[in-house]
Amino acid sequence: MNVIVNDTIEIAELLQLPKEVAIVSHRNPDGDAIGSSIAMAAFLRKHNHTVHIILPSEYPDIFGFLKGIDDIIIFDTEPEKSKEIIDKSSVVICLDFNSLERIDKLGRLIDDTDVQIVMIDHHIEPEPFYALAISRADVSSTCELVFNYIKDLDKVNMIDLEIGEAIMTGILTDTGSFRHNTNKGTYYVAGDLKARGVDDYYLQDKIFNSMNEKQLRLLGHCLVNRMEIIEEYRTGIIALNQKDYEEFDIKRGDTEGIVNYILMLKQMDVAIFVRQQPKIIKLSLRSKGDISVQAMARDHFGGGGHKNASGGYTYGSIGKVIRKIKEVLPDYVPKK
């Protein structure tokens, strides 16, 4: 259910005086998680707040160009420091996720602490773990919501290059370079940032043209050897097993964006990317038009996200998972 919550005034009042603030975002952070965190932190520091960003797990190397990224604390590698920051904070701002389960042990830590929790997020069906929130599933990205928060406070002139590049990064990645999840407000924000000197060509190059040789060869392997097309349901599936992970020495971020290549095929409406990891199988799902992969992820693979871009997870063998996908596919995708 898409419930709109807009506590902008109340959040601004909460943050009127300098405070210790912790900003957190989801595991396996993407451009929107990282960009919104950096932008919000930089904006709050301009108001003399003491701000720390904590992410549950490492971020992909491609975002290393962003100013302020080196100050991010990774919970997996620094749990004690993360706990110390949360304990000292009076406000925790949760960006780009709507359930504490998305941040694992860090979520339990926050839940056990007496802090004011603020959520800014654009996913549907938020869980009520927050005191105040800005929740809009009809907006492209959490970065767009952060920009709107700053704009609603009439403080857009405080958006410098660090904040602007971070916001644009989240918009570019969550919309696939404006190919999906856009609305007229998205283009307004992008235009405003460009007018302020944000170089979108530079950001596009940094984000989308930074593959190394291994990643390019892995992409080729996925398309040639691991892609299956189900024509009658206009669906493509790519599945990587543990042997693939070992052969290509796949690390965090190496598979980013591979799922999108399936939708480049003419008449493909659904793309599903399956990865076998040591204890779990993860799925990334993409779709076009009215087909809701969010519903499929929610109903069968313990996940969710957006109508046309979702993720999930399950257990078992790769073969079992693919059979499950094919079994439920007719419930969500009209037959050709």
How much helix is in the residues?
A: 25-40%
What strand order characterises the main sheet?
A: 1-7-6-5-2-3-4
In total, how many beta strands? 13
CATH architecture of the largest domain: Alpha-Beta Complex
Shape: globular
Note the gap between the termini.
Answer: 29 Å
Name of the CATH first level of the largest domain: Alpha Beta
Number of domains: 2
Estimated share of beta-strand residues: 15-25%
The CATH homology group name of the largest domain: inorganic pyrophosphatase (n-terminal core)
User: What profile does the largest beta sheet have?
Assistant: 7 strands, mixed
Low-confidence stretches: none
Mean pLDDT equals 95
- Might you state the CATH topology name of the largest domain? inorganic pyrophosphatase (n-terminal core)
Q: Give me the oligomer status.
A: single chain
From the alpha carbons, calculate the radius of gyration and give it in angstroms.
20 Å
Q: What's the SSE pattern?
A: EHEHEEHEHEEHHHHHEEHEEHEEH
**Structural class given helices, strands, pairing?**
alpha/beta
Secondary structure tally, helices = 12
Quickly describe the structure.
The chain is built from 12 helices and 13 strands. α2 runs parallel beside α5 and α2 runs antiparallel to α6. A hairpin with a 3-residue loop joins β12 and β13.
